[in-house]
């Protein structure tokens, strides 16, 4: 999922101060779990905007805010509210905001959150970054622990000389990921993988912007 964090209200206000009416769009997926775009947050922002003398014409929580066509269809019943709205505020991730920009080509769209990283939820509403979306996964060689993400230097052949009592020299409060990889490989009898030298990654695979057609029209017909 995508981790998001609420922006300070004063920063949002600075962007939208010249507008009068707003429609708020949340998301039932990641933003709801992050506490940045679920029903309680929609209600809270509505109340705060109204206290500032603004009008909120409606609130809506998309099933999956980054899904452009699905969200567009879900928003059809809100046409009347949206026609009376100066600005759409999106309370999800940057992908959700850009979906709204596509859905509302003639309206200003602002976002109430900052988008942080691809997240694993380890406990309810506790998030860790485990994958940097590099496009060429090496987890098979590293015991399923990603050094591109878990090592602050992104070392593919660690550990570096700074490992201190098993902890990371860059972030002493975390265990060196290469120590974790060693322990994991040892546990699953794959220590030989530790001896392999990994070539430099092909970073062109993570060159942006990326696109993917998961299934072609022809494949969908089958
Ligand atoms: S190697 Fe790349 S794709 Fe695999 S987990 Fe790490 S960042 Fe993600
Ligand atoms: S101590 Fe380990 S995790 Fe930290 S930078 Fe060096 S190799 Fe990476």
Describe this structure in words.
By secondary structure, the chain is α/β, with parallel strands linked by helices. It has 2 domains: 2-117, Response regulator (Rossmann fold), CATH 3.40.50.2300; 134-206, no CATH class. Helix content is 33%, strand content 19%. It is built from 10 helices and 7 strands. The protein has a 4-stranded parallel beta sheet, with helices on both faces. It has a 3-stranded antiparallel beta sheet with strand order 1-6-7. A hairpin with a 2-residue loop joins β6 and β7. The longest helix has 13 residues, at 39-51. The relative contact order is 0.12. The mean pLDDT is 97.
Number of helices: 10
Order of helices and strands: EHEHHEHHEHEEEHHHH
CATH class designation of the largest domain: Alpha Beta
What's the total count of β strands?
Answer: 7
The stretches of 5 or more residues where confidence is low (pLDDT under 50) are: none
- What is the CATH topology of the largest domain? Rossmann fold
| Class by SSE composition | alpha/beta
Q: How helix-rich are the residues, as a percent range?
A: 25-40%
Mean pLDDT: 97
Instruction: Give the biggest beta sheet.
Output: 4 strands, parallel
CATH homologous superfamily caption of the largest domain: Response regulator
The general outline is: elongated
End-to-end Cα distance, whole Å, is 30 Å
- CATH architecture of the largest domain, please? 3-Layer(aba) Sandwich
Q: List the bound ligands.
A: iron/sulfur cluster
> What's the number of structural domains?
2
The spatial strand order of the largest sheet comes to: 3-2-4-5
Strand content: 15-25%
């Amino acid at each position: 999922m995508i981790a998001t964090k609420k922006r300070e209200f004063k920063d949002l206000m600075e962007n939208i101060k010249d507008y009068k009416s707003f429609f708020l769009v949340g998301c039932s997926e990641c933003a709801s779990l992050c506490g940045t775009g679920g029903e309680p947050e929609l209600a809270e922002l509505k109340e705060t905007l109204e206290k500032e003398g603004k009008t909120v014409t409606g609130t809506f929580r998309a099933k999956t805010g980054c899904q452009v066509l699905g969200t567009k269809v879900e928003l059809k019943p809100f046409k009347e509210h949206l026609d009376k709205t100066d600005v759409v505020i999106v309370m999800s991730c940057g992908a959700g905001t850009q979906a709204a920009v596509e859905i509302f080509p003639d309206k200003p769209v602002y976002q109430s959150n900052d988008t942080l990283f691809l997240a694993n939820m380890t406990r309810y509403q506790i998030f860790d970054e485990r994958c940097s979306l590099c496009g060429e996964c090496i987890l098979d060689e590293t015991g399923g622990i990603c050094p591109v993400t878990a090592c602050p230097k992104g070392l593919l052949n660690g550990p570096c000389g700074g490992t201190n009592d098993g902890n990371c020299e860059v972030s002493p409060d975390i265990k060196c990921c290469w120590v974790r990889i060693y322990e994991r490989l040892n546990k699953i009898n794959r220590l030989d993988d530790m001896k392999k030298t990994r070539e430099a990654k092909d970073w062109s695979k993570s060159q942006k912007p990326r696109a993917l057609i998961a299934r072609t029209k022809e494949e969908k017909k089958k």
